[in-house]
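Shipment paperwork, digital attachment
Item: protein structure file
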Amino acid sequence: MLREKCLYHFVLPTLKKVTSLGMTTADMLALLDDTWSHRWESVTGAIKDLREDEAAFQHAAYAKEEREEGLPPPGTVLWYLAHMAHCNAFYAAMIRRRPAKPAEPDAQGLLTLKVCLGALERTHADLRAAVAELPDSAVNDVLGNGQPIHEFVRACARHECWHSAQIAVARRLWRTR
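Attachment content:
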């Protein structure tokens, strides 16, 4: 009950205000920067000192999941890294080619830790660059998926946070195997 009161009385009205006000380009860049490199909760924090054997570990909970050809096994840190790199490339293209919806980028060949980390660093930097290219007057432009840019960039940041947390859990499962 208390959690519901907090959610409905404090969190949701705040989110509605932020959504209706929009964001500046600088706000969106700060959000992406925090998601990437905040000292506690971030992509770089989740992948710090990651090793190839750890990144390739697949917990039994994912053993029966279908593997996509040319991609790492599902549930591995490698899969999360490849997925995030693939999505970031698509997100950057969504912003740059608005309002058209771009074709899906190729995700094949993202199979080793070195390749996945390099691709993720490049695509995150490219997503950040796509946002940095925006004038503040464009943050309400609508993308090919129907979302305004400021809303879409917040979703991009949440996506990286979500998978960073999954990486942290996968690493814990590897350590306790």
